Design the sequence.
Protein backbone atom coordinates (compact mmCIF):
# COMPACT_ATOMS: atom_id res chain seq x y z
CA UNK A 1 0.00 0.00 0.00
CA UNK A 2 2.99 2.30 0.56
CA UNK A 3 4.99 1.08 -2.42
CA UNK A 4 4.68 -0.59 -5.79
CA UNK A 5 6.76 -2.78 -8.05
CA UNK A 6 7.78 -1.44 -11.43
CA UNK A 7 7.28 -4.22 -13.96
CA UNK A 8 10.21 -3.11 -16.12
CA UNK A 9 12.96 -3.94 -13.61
CA UNK A 10 10.97 -5.51 -10.73
CA UNK A 11 12.27 -2.91 -8.27
CA UNK A 12 10.00 -1.86 -5.41
CA UNK A 13 9.58 1.91 -5.06
CA UNK A 14 8.01 3.67 -2.11
CA UNK A 15 5.33 6.23 -2.83
CA UNK A 16 7.66 9.04 -1.71
CA UNK A 17 10.27 8.06 -4.28
CA UNK A 18 7.60 7.84 -6.98
CA UNK A 19 6.39 11.32 -6.00
CA UNK A 20 9.93 12.72 -6.07
CA UNK A 21 10.55 11.21 -9.52
CA UNK A 22 7.36 12.84 -10.81
CA UNK A 23 8.45 16.20 -9.41
CA UNK A 24 11.67 15.82 -11.40
CA UNK A 25 9.72 15.22 -14.61
CA UNK A 26 10.03 11.44 -14.76
CA UNK A 27 6.28 10.85 -15.13
CA UNK A 28 6.45 7.96 -17.58
CA UNK A 29 9.95 6.63 -16.89
CA UNK A 30 11.24 4.22 -14.26
CA UNK A 31 13.66 5.96 -11.86
CA UNK A 32 15.84 2.83 -11.70
CA UNK A 33 16.22 1.56 -15.26
CA UNK A 34 14.93 4.60 -17.21
CA UNK A 35 12.54 2.39 -19.21
CA UNK A 36 9.22 3.88 -20.27
CA UNK A 37 6.45 2.57 -18.00
CA UNK A 38 3.73 0.49 -19.64
CA UNK A 39 0.51 2.27 -20.54
CA UNK A 40 -1.76 -0.79 -20.66
CA UNK A 41 -2.09 -4.29 -19.23
CA UNK A 42 -0.77 -6.03 -22.34
CA UNK A 43 2.52 -4.13 -22.38
CA UNK A 44 2.91 -4.56 -18.61
CA UNK A 45 2.31 -8.29 -18.90
CA UNK A 46 4.84 -8.48 -21.76
CA UNK A 47 7.48 -6.81 -19.56
CA UNK A 48 6.80 -9.21 -16.69
CA UNK A 49 6.83 -12.24 -19.02
CA UNK A 50 10.19 -11.16 -20.45
CA UNK A 51 11.71 -11.25 -16.95
CA UNK A 52 9.92 -14.52 -16.10
CA UNK A 53 11.46 -16.11 -19.20
CA UNK A 54 14.90 -15.14 -17.86
CA UNK A 55 14.22 -16.92 -14.56
CA UNK A 56 13.79 -13.84 -12.35
CA UNK A 57 12.36 -15.11 -9.03
CA UNK A 58 10.78 -11.75 -8.17
CA UNK A 59 9.04 -11.57 -11.56
CA UNK A 60 7.79 -15.15 -11.25
CA UNK A 61 6.38 -14.44 -7.79
CA UNK A 62 4.84 -11.19 -9.04
CA UNK A 63 3.17 -13.04 -11.92
CA UNK A 64 1.78 -15.51 -9.39
CA UNK A 65 0.26 -12.56 -7.50
CA UNK A 66 -1.32 -11.31 -10.71
CA UNK A 67 -2.91 -14.71 -11.38
CA UNK A 68 -4.18 -14.90 -7.78
CA UNK A 69 -5.84 -11.47 -7.98
CA UNK A 70 -6.79 -11.47 -11.66
CA UNK A 71 -4.71 -8.38 -12.52
CA UNK A 72 -2.96 -7.33 -15.75
CA UNK A 73 -5.88 -8.70 -17.75
CA UNK A 74 -5.34 -12.25 -16.47
CA UNK A 75 -8.19 -14.45 -15.27
CA UNK A 76 -8.00 -15.58 -11.64
CA UNK A 77 -6.21 -18.93 -11.58
CA UNK A 78 -5.14 -20.18 -8.16
CA UNK A 79 -3.48 -23.34 -9.48
CA UNK A 80 -1.31 -21.28 -11.86
CA UNK A 81 -0.45 -18.89 -8.99
CA UNK A 82 0.62 -21.81 -6.78
CA UNK A 83 2.70 -23.28 -9.59
CA UNK A 84 4.47 -19.95 -10.17
CA UNK A 85 5.05 -19.35 -6.46
CA UNK A 86 6.50 -22.84 -6.11
CA UNK A 87 8.94 -22.13 -8.95
CA UNK A 88 9.86 -18.74 -7.46
CA UNK A 89 10.32 -20.27 -4.00
CA UNK A 90 12.72 -22.84 -5.47
CA UNK A 91 14.68 -19.91 -6.92
CA UNK A 92 14.83 -18.28 -3.46
CA UNK A 93 11.94 -15.80 -3.39
CA UNK A 94 10.86 -15.09 0.20
CA UNK A 95 7.63 -13.48 -1.02
CA UNK A 96 6.73 -16.70 -2.84
CA UNK A 97 7.38 -18.75 0.32
CA UNK A 98 5.11 -16.38 2.24
CA UNK A 99 2.31 -16.55 -0.36
CA UNK A 100 2.47 -20.35 -0.48
CA UNK A 101 2.39 -20.55 3.31
CA UNK A 102 -0.64 -18.27 3.52
CA UNK A 103 -2.43 -20.11 0.73
CA UNK A 104 -1.98 -23.47 2.43
CA UNK A 105 -2.44 -22.28 6.02
CA UNK A 106 -5.65 -20.34 5.46
CA UNK A 107 -6.88 -22.08 2.33
CA UNK A 108 -7.36 -20.02 -0.75
CA UNK A 109 -9.87 -19.36 -3.44
CA UNK A 110 -13.35 -20.66 -3.95
CA UNK A 111 -13.90 -24.33 -3.12
CA UNK A 112 -12.63 -26.38 -6.02
CA UNK A 113 -10.60 -23.52 -7.49
CA UNK A 114 -8.01 -22.87 -4.81
CA UNK A 115 -6.47 -25.09 -2.19
CA UNK A 116 -7.97 -26.62 0.88
CA UNK A 117 -6.74 -25.45 4.25
CA UNK A 118 -3.68 -27.47 5.24
CA UNK A 119 -2.11 -25.87 8.35
CA UNK A 120 0.85 -28.29 8.68
CA UNK A 121 1.84 -27.68 5.07
CA UNK A 122 1.41 -23.92 5.52
CA UNK A 123 3.88 -23.87 8.37
Sequence:
Amino acid sequence: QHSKINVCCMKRLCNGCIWEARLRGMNDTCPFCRTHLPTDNASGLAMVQKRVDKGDAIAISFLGDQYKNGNLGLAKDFSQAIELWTEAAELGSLEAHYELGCMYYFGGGVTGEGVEEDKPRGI
Observations:
- The two ends are 26 Å apart (CA to CA).
